[in-house]
Amino acid sequence: MATATTHGARAHARAQEGTRAEAMPVVPATDWPAPPCAAGHLVWAETVAGGNYTHRVLARGTELRLTDLRGDACAHLLLFVADRPWERLNVADTVKVQWNAYLGEGRLLLSDQGRVLASVIADTSGRHDTLCGTSTLVRNTDRYGDGTPQGPSPAGRELLQLAAAKNGLEPRDLPPSLSFFQGVAVRDDGSLDFTGSSGPGGSVTLRAEQDLTVLIANVPHPADPRPEYVSTPLEVLAWRAVATAPGDPLWEATPEGRRAFLNTVDFLAARGLA
Amino acid sequence: MTNVKTETVAARAAWSSVVRTGETLTITDLHGNQAVDFLLYDAHDTSVRYSAPDTIHAQGGIFLTTGSVLLSNEHTPLMTVTADDVGRHDTVGGACSKESNTLRYGHHTWSQHACVDNFLAEGARYGLGKRDLVSNINWYMNVPVERDGTLGIVDGLSAPGLSVALRAERDVLVLVSNCPQINNPCNGFEPTAVQMTISRAAGA
Questions:
Q1: What is the pLDDT along chain B (204 residues), one digit of tens a residue?
Q2: What are the residues facing B49 on neighbouring strands?
Q3: Nearest residue of A to residue B45, measured between CA atoms
Q4: What residues contact B136, with CB distance under 8 A and at least 6 apart?
Q5: For an interface test with B, which of A128, A129, A131 has the most B Cβ atoms less than 10 Å from its Cβ?
Q6: How many contacts, defined by CB atoms under 8 Å, are there between A and B?
């Protein structure tokens, strides 16, 4: 198609509509071919390429399922309260308050304000990490020869900074992240044991307990020992549901969690949001 | 070594200082079993700050001791542990706050002192705000992780007079909250004073 004229260039550009790529958002999300919920409830349907990132604002009560399609995804996650981003994920409080360093079904992702940001309501992977954070430009340049966002081996922090910027946030706003699908365990002497992936198809489902800004970078775990940069697609699906309420087993699972939910609803009620 | 300054930080108090490249900061647990919450920043660019995950990943473990390099979020060295009488310091538990205390112990703890308030007040003197606070080091605090991931603050390993020494690899700003927590064994349930000494090699 001739692109030497404005009309030709326009026709060429428009002819691309309908192209399918392996990694892309489906818009509207309700067009996703195999929804895990009532099809009309889907609000986010995307496949994130290895070495790429995504971000979305999700309403309280939304469920978010991340799936490691081929076994080499690693979802590095940051959460912020959507309209007050100074309240954000606190990994230290998350592990300390719940008396456990590992993530899995029933675990709460806590903010730095004694409230719940999200609940982990399902987990078929069991390989996650709260300790090592994500990769950096310096580290990826050293390991793979390049860590820039547009290069062949982007660093997670570089991508999270871009996702943050698109939500009006700066590098200072980024606390330590956590990651799903590449596991790290602690040995008795405090040293780390990289346990890697559980294999293709592992999934984790989170439930938003407040309106959230979600940032995700899909990049290799910093402790991945392989010399090559291996990062495969991550599926992201989200659908409308309801936030955890009194009577839900998760609400009463632990005294610390119960107080975190009480703090959350108390705060939202005062704002007229719950 | 030439002494640059020695200051005693009262129980529950905050403290801060710039430590110049090559200088050594020695933290002495005067009475034993006192947790010292600690954050550090590049003194010339505070967006470059201590990163617990980078430090943990780079050294391959969660406990700090002699030889541990405290890395920034840019994966660059800020300070190195050059001497340690205790052998284990915490990188995982972060700071206590009035908010997290309500989860950990109950809402009756809300009016108690907490480290995040110390960090906010001391950091404000340098233009640092809430978003500049990240997972911190807890010198002397003992946080083991069991095989199933169970983790908790347990009785400390420190004793009166024990110390840890840190060499600055660049000019750093250090913020300290001498932990006021009274609901767990990090302070033996009774906060006490610590001493901060900055020194430099003679002639340096």
A1: 899 999 999 999 999 999 999 999 999 999 999 999 999 999 999 999 999 999 999 999 999 999 999 999 999 999 999 999 999 999 999 999 999 999 999 999 999 999 999 999 999 999 999 999 999 999 999 999 999 999 999 999 999 999 999 999 999 999 999 999 999 999 999 999 999 999 998 876
A2: B41
A3: A172
A4: A92, B37, B38, B39, B50, B52, B94, B95, B115, B119
A5: A131
A6: 140
Instruction: Give the separation between CA A142 and CA A212, rounded to whole angstroms.
Output: 34
Q: Write down the pLDDT at residue A269.
A: 97
Main-chain dihedrals φ then ψ at residue B126, nearest 5 degrees: -115, 10
Mutate to test the interface with B, among A112, A134, A258 (most CBs of B within 10 A): A112
Are B59 and B68 in contact, with CB atoms under 8 Å apart?
Answer: yes
Phi, psi of B140 (to 5 degrees): 80, -10
Q: Cβ contacts of residue B29 below 8 Å, gap of 6+?
A: B36, B86, B139, B140, B158, B159, B160, B161, B162, B163, B194
Cβ distance B104 to A177 less than 8 Å, yes or no, reads no
Respond yes or no on whether ipTM tops 0.95. Answer: yes
Residue-level length of chain A: 274
**Is the Cα torsion angle A31, A36, A39, A43 positive or negative in sign?**
negative
Residues 114-153 (B) with a CB less than 8 A from some CB of A: 116, 130-136, 143-145, 147-153
* Alpha carbon distance A171, A174 (integer Å): 6
Determine, for residues B57 and A192 on separate chains, whether the beta-carbon distance falls below 8 Å: yes
Residue B165, beta-bridge partner list: B26, B83
